[in-house]
Design a protein that fits this description.
The structure is a homodimer. Chain A is α/β, with parallel strands linked by helices and about 325 residues long. Chain A is built from twelve helices and twelve strands. The first copy, chain A, has helices at about 25-40, 60-70, 85-100, 110-115, 120-125, 130-145, 160-170, 175-180, 210-220, 240-250, 255-270, 305-320; strands at about 10-15, 20, 50-55, 75-80, 105-110, 150-155, 185, 190, 195-200, 200-205, 280-285, 290-295. In chain A, the strands form four sheets. Chain A has a six-stranded mixed β-sheet with strand order 5-4-3-6-10-7, sandwiched between helices. A two-stranded antiparallel ribbon of chain A has the order 1-2. In chain A, strands 8-9 form a two-stranded antiparallel sheet. The longest helix of chain A has 19 residues, at about 130-145. At the A-B interface, α10 and α11 of A face α10 and α11 of B.
Chain lengths: ~325, ~325
């Protein structure tokens, strides 16, 4: 196996491109793929201020590295989800990367900001952890970007992530989600005239041309010390099953994932762009985040985040005020 | 495991319906599922003349049996594809079923009608066998239905078949195919006024609510002697891989296939209904079948079937007229 560029010994092969690369040319291939994606989807310019959400995993750290190498003005944002020692180790990976690269990292924690961790939220709401986690990340990423004055929020979603999401949306024909699945989600403005303000910052995914396996190889070759273990709460996650099913097909026919995702963007996505439904974008009465109002009473609307938080905190108060029945031998672990 | 209806010992369970049935009630469940589908999609009435395409396999024979039990006026059509002894055994299964049920079966053969078998066609055109096979079956089923005066062409496509096709169409975002994937394809009329004639007979798939495993169980319980082996040409067929991938998901979450298919019909299919493109339906100058013309010269158009046949027969003539270079020891097998 020889490098496509220099014919030296290759260290990474990419079957769907029918190509292999040596270390040096694989790294420049990755830079090119990301640069091409940024240009193709007009994601941002050299003078935009970028905030990248980093988890400490391979994708977000690899992307942060690529963007730094491409000389973008990019700051990291780490949100501590409070998932036991896993969060501790992933935070260390993010901090250590930032120090090595002399890059700025903003760190916030769900527990400090809102008084709960992801596992606690899951218990209080009785929902799967991934649901509350996703909601809180989307909310906090956007809030941090707005509060800290960034133009663009960057995430490390790779081709495999996007295909798994697409596959799930197609299995259930979630037509609203299909209408919103894109490498760029435009910013949303609330209010008019002098009241107008950015309510949702522009979101972009520069890794959509890059497979999971390639970000792992990039991180390895660049000496990025990322957290290898998967989130311990993710077990049985349907997204994982979708990845497995599609990987079966990718192995038999390299390029299947890329074809599915980019074919969707080109030929199908426009058919799902949300029709102007009955819901209008209004301001949450508590936190001012944008949310959808379905009836006339705009000033009374709470966003999903605030509703979920209220629900969780109410449940906690209820539990605290009702002494739980004790059996002999029980040990207090609270 | 007890029968949902009579609480006796069940012989078949259907996880996606969270139900199990004894022999008697499974058979009536199948009749109900087919009757419900015929009604739901307004497939046909009691006085329509139905032609069912039978392959000798479980699906088409099971469906023929159900339609006879439901007292429909239904005749079988078997097309001999000339796939060695496999075709011989599948024809026997079809003939034997018809005799046992005292039902009428029309038998035709590709070799007699057009001078080639499916394996020969594949060799002559250099295409995978499934491609020529599908084209010839669609063409011959429609021709037989029209020539023999039937109103409706019935096929035994089950839920697994439809989901695998849908999955393939979604992987490649074949938007034209997505626009035509439905349990009913309406008849197409060519010509106007007194020249008007049915060119494509109405096609229906009454098994779309029934999984492969259920038609197999039905055939077994009804003592239908079907051909169990798969077509020997189908190996490596992508449709099979799609079935495997989705079966992974169905096992983890029963109902996935049904949800994907019926969700598509309800929420997505209307978005793919073919826009009136540049192509118009015209008559093939050779065989009068309907075909699409892309330029102005309507009277010169050949349909895909006639073009493929021409191509194959021309290749055969070329081969016969050019003596192939012989090496010593070669044996004449032509």
């Amino acid at each position: 196996m020889k490098c496509k560029v220099c014919r030296q010994h290759a260290v990474v092969d990419i079957r769907r491109h029918n190509a292999a690369f040596c270390q040096e040319h694989f790294i420049s291939h990755m830079h090119n793929q990301v640069a091409r994606t940024i240009k193709e989807f007009k994601m941002f310019d050299a003078d935009d201020r970028l905030l990248i959400a980093v988890s400490g995993g391979k994708d977000s750290l690899a992307l942060w590295d690529v963007l730094l190498e491409l000389d973008y003005d990019v700051v990291g944002f780490y949100l501590d989800l409070g998932i036991g020692s896993y969060s501790g180790r992933s935070k260390e990976a993010a901090i250590s990367f930032a120090e090595t690269r002399n890059a700025k990292l903003i760190v916030r924690s769900l527990a400090e900001e809102h008084g709960y961790t992801v596992p606690e939220l899951a218990k209080l709401t009785g929902r799967v952890p991934c649901s509350g986690c996703g909601l809180n990340k989307r909310y906090e990423f956007n809030r941090a970007a707005l509060e800290e004055g960034f133009d663009i929020l960057v995430t490390g979603h790779n081709l495999d992530d996007e295909v798994a999401t697409l596959f799930g949306n197609v299995l259930h024909w979630n037509v609203d989600m299909l209408g919103r699945q894109a490498p760029v989600l435009e910013e949303r403005i609330l209010g008019e005239g002098t009241d107008a303000r950015v309510a949702l910052v522009r979101k972009v995914k520069p890794l959509v041309r890059v497979a999971e396996r390639e970000t792992a190889a990039y991180a390895l070759l660049r000496g990025i010390d990322y957290i290898v273990e998967e989130c311990p709460m993710v077990e049985g996650n349907t997204q994982h099953r979708y990845k497995e099913a599609i990987t079966l097909l990718e192995e038999a026919s390299p390029g299947t994932k890329q074809q599915m995702y980019f074919g969707f963007l080109k030929r199908a996505a426009p058919r799902f762009i949300a029709e102007s439904g009955e819901g209008r974008l209004v301001t949450c009465k508590r936190c001012s985040a944008p949310t959808v109002a379905w009836d006339g009473n705009d000033s009374e609307v709470l966003c999903t985040f605030c509703r979920t938080k209220d629900h969780a905190l109410r449940r906690r108060t209820d539990r605290a005020s009702i002494p739980s029945p004790r059996r002999e031998g029980d040990v207090d672990t609270a």
